[in-house]
Recover the amino acids of this structure.
């Protein structure tokens, strides 16, 4: 199911990129970066969680985001709180695949994931490792605090 969701997202993104003419080269390049980002994130599904981890053996949430973005040449700060202060704040109705979504834990920014589309996001869950979750799930809906766009702001 998770693989099907990501395959669908990637297919739509590829169609978008392929249908852009040469006047939209910047948007085409950004879409291709997002495709690479989502593909790398997909490769990490099932990676176990460990606090402070940032590799394919084990990772925490911000380490997961850090390594996925690093794989496409974008360097981000290490913690979820630092990542929240990076990039451009975006409205929820403007979320695009590859945007970062943030959540409160213990009264501070304490969790981050990568938006996939259709209210789904991929992240390193402390109980399940790297998984896809739904922003509409009660826990995430009640702890969600906002999103940031990295592309176009680095």
């Amino acid at each position: 199911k998770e693989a099907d969701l990501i395959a669908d997202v990637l297919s739509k993104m590829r169609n978008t990129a392929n249908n852009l003419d040469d006047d939209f080269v910047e948007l085409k390049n950004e879409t291709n970066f997002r495709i690479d980002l989502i593909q790398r994130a997909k490769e990490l599904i099932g990676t176990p969680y460990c606090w402070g981890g940032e590799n394919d053996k084990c990772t925490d949430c911000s380490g997961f985001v850090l390594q996925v973005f690093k794989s496409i040449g974008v360097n981000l700060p290490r913690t979820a709180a630092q990542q929240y202060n990076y990039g451009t704040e975006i409205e929820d109705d403007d979320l695009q695949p590859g945007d970062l979504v943030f959540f409160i834990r213990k009264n501070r920014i304490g969790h981050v994931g990568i938006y996939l589309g259709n209210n789904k996001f991929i992240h390193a869950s402390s109980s399940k490792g790297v998984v896809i979750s739904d922003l509409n799930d009660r826990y995430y809906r009640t702890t969600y605090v906002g999103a940031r766009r990295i592309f176009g702001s680095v």
About this structure: The first helix runs from residue 2 to 19. The chain has a mean pLDDT of 92. The first strand starts at residue 88 and ends at 90. Helices lie at 2-19, 25-43, 61-70, 80-84, 138-143.
